[in-house]
Amino acid sequence: MINNLQSVGIIGTGSYVPEQVVTNKDLEKLVDTSDEWIVTRTGISERRKAESHIATSDMGVIAGQRAIEAAGLKPDDIDLIIVATITPDMFFPSTACIIQEKIGAINASAFDLSAACTGFIYGLAVGSQFIASGMYKHVLVIGAETLSRILNPADRNTLVLFGDGAGAAVLGPVEDGKGFLAFDLGSDGSGGNLLYLEAGGSRLPVSEETIKKGQHYLAMSGNDVFKFAVRIMGETSLKTLEKAGLTREDVDYLVPHQANIRIVDAAVKRLKLPAEKVYVNLDKYGNMSGASIPVALDEALKENKINKDDIIVLVGFGAGLTWGACVIRWSY
Ligand code: ACO
To answer: What residue ranges line ligand 1, CB within 6 angstroms?
Structure first.
């Protein structure tokens, strides 16, 4: 429950990943890398790539429709759509508005939210406030990314890490004491230079020169992001548990952002969780940024890893820098 208001929880999830699989061996043909390096340094074996005619909204539509159906609702029951993405279809209109039209959510307001890989957690936090306050009843939160469009095909440092996909959750009122028990959100703009896409905004519009310099591609200082991630994933999880009046012993299942198995392992070590209580699918999908957590959550549910009344922690970090976690008492 949030401040003694209406309790809010996730009442349905859905996900979609494109069919095209890009293996580490495929990438060996494009850049100076090896399957062995990628697997040992990241845990990633393959990732998905959207066909050229598929944009972020197309994947978000499917994930969103699946989540609405899982919640037993119709598109016109949705009051608000929030899309967490760093790869929108275009600057504007928002990808949320594009999805609203495509799924026929005629009663929904819609906006995008930018918090990179933490975007889905931010979306859950924002969306749940509308329900807790009584303003809305059903909010669709989607994390969707077509990261393959912003990767430099010649940069082995980033090309191997990311994949495309979409995940979604419908939020709604739940029984008292269930649903979201606590959130922790954080940001540190001083780390903005560690992970960014430089050209294409008002600071540096795209020009022939920016294209020549590859400034329209994602740039990352991997090692610095790694050190930050290893620290923050455990910290924010423990802080959120404390806010919920719980400890790490209470955690039944952890769904972390899927960036790198070594980052997940560090968080798991800090939380002293056994491997069977942690969902990992980064080997199949790589890092799907805002889509990683909702896809992992949806798959964990489908594999019956999460049961009614379980204490679940979702935790992520990303560009910004941003980070966040939530603790949920699962309601179905
Ligand atoms: N294949 C082979 N060698 C590579 C590759 C590759 N694909 N990529 C980097 N290397 C090389 C580097 O060039 C470097 O070589 P050098 O020593 O000759 O310079 C060497 O491997 C080691 O590089 P490090 O950066 O020290 O390797 P590290 O162990 O840190 O692993 C990695 C790199 C995987 C990027 C890691 O730092 C990481 O996972 N960082 C976090 C990244 C992340 O999660 N980003 C997403 C944030 S979420 C968001 O908001 C989008």
So the answer is: 33, 37-38, 41-42, 116-117, 156-157, 160, 195, 220, 222-223, 225-226, 229, 259-260, 287, 289, 318-319
Catalytic (active site) residue 257:
yes
Tell me whether residue 287 is one of the annotated catalytic residues. Answer: yes
> Is residue 117 annotated as part of the catalytic site, yes or no?
yes
Taking the CA of residue 220 as reference, the ligand 1 atom at the shortest distance is 45
**Residue 89, pLDDT above cutoff 60:** yes
- CB atoms < 10 A from the CB of 201, how many? 10
9, pLDDT greater than 90: yes
The type of residue at 258 is Q
Minimal CA–CA distance to 142: which of 160, 125, 164, 124?
124
CA-CA distance, 255 to 232, in Å (whole number)? 15
Name the residue type at position 265.
D
| 90 vs 261: CA distance, rounded Å | 32
Residue-wise pLDDT for 127-181, tens only, equals 999 999 999 999 999 999 999 999 999 999 999 999 999 999 999 999 999 999 9
Neighbour-count burial of 247, counting CB atoms closer than 10 A to its CB (0-12 exposed, 13-18 middle, 19+ buried): exposed
CA torsion angle 156 159 160 161 (round to 10):
120
* Catalytic hit among 138, 257, 260, 326: 257
CA-wise closest residue to 310 among 179, 171, 173, 183: 179
